[in-house]
Amino acid sequence: MNVVQSGLVLQALLALAAVATGLLCPVSWRSRATGALCALLGVAGIVTGAAALGGANGALTIPLALPIDPLVLSPDRLGGLFMLVVSAVGALVSLFGIGSARGAEASRTSWAAMAVFLGGMQLVPAATDVVSFLLLWEIMTLGSTVLLLADHASRSTVYSAAIWYSAMSQLSFFFVLAGFGVLVAATGGTGFQTLATVQEGSWPANLAFVLLLLGFGGKAELVPLHVWVPGCFRRRRAMSPRR
């Protein structure tokens, strides 16, 4: 295995270890142990992303029992850049959480969801096909939604904010799925290189562009798809943990 392949495998293993530690570790050690594993997950992503950005090649292939192409993770230079950036942020947040997480933020649910979110977010830029991209995208969304819901038992505003976030995230996912579906039907494959062969200016290309713009634009809160964000963040600020 080269650096990229080893880094992809290590990220997956560290994410699984962090989830298990967050769920099983006693409260006295939970933040330190899980936070350290999440920080190491970020470091692994930084190294992998830097290697891909520098031109190193490597792929992690995951065969499926379904009659479709296997999942392939192989970041290119652009994917390496995104992986490096999100991994660096994730590592810093994890280190900060070791000493600052209190109450619901330090619960089994929060730390396990944190590991799921970081693992999905770091591996999304490595996706080379529609199936792996959507799977990792949903893993990332699941982790972030559970993080929002972690304090729901003690603060009613959490539930409302999480419902808005989850609904808009799934609506965005629907548009992204539909856009990719149009391209897959037009090109006959699920790999991004195959999708790129769609004829420019054709109706499948134009329709897919609109659908993907709505999907990714909704996730990025682009105007005017941002209208739900102020209310959600007001609710989120209202539930900030008491110190």
List keywords for this structure.
243 residues, mainly alpha, 2 domains, two-stranded antiparallel ribbon, 9 helices, 71% helix, globular, disordered C terminus, transmembrane helix, ND/Mrp_TM
Brief write-up:
71% of the residues lie in helices and 2% in strands. With 243 residues, the chain is mainly alpha-helical.
Q: Could you please describe the fold and organization of this structure?
A:
With 243 residues, this protein is an all-alpha fold. The protein has helices at 3-24, 27-53, 77-100, 108-123, 130-149, 156-187, 192-195, 203-219, 229-238, and strands at residues 60-62, 71-73. The protein has a two-stranded antiparallel ribbon. The longest helix has 32 residues, at 156-187. The chain starts with a helix and ends in a 5-residue tail after the last helix. It is found in: Cell membrane; Membrane. The chain crosses the membrane at residues 6-25, 37-66, 78-98, 110-127, 133-150, 162-187, 207-233. This is NADH:quinone oxidoreductase/Mrp antiporter transmembrane domain-containing protein.
In percent, how much strand structure appears in the residues?
Answer: under 5%
If helices are DSSP runs of H or I spanning 4 or more residues, what is the number of helices? 9
Please describe the biggest sheet, giving its number of strands, its sense, and whether it closes into a barrel.
Answer: 2 strands, antiparallel
Global morphology:
globular
What's the domain count? 2
The N- and C-terminal alpha carbons lie at a distance of 46 Å
The assigned structural class equals: mainly alpha
Contiguous low-pLDDT stretches (5 residues minimum) are: 235-243
- Helix/strand order, N-terminal first: HHEEHHHHHHH
Q: How much is the radius of gyration in Å? A: 19 Å
Tally of strands: 2
What share of residues is helical? over 70%
Strand neighbour order, sheet with most strands: 1-2
Q: Name the average pLDDT.
A: 84
InterPro entries: ComplexI-like_HydComp, ND/Mrp_TM
Membrane topology: Multi-pass membrane protein
Pfam family, one: Proton_antipo_M
Keywords: Cell membrane, Membrane, Oxidoreductase, Transmembrane, Transmembrane helix
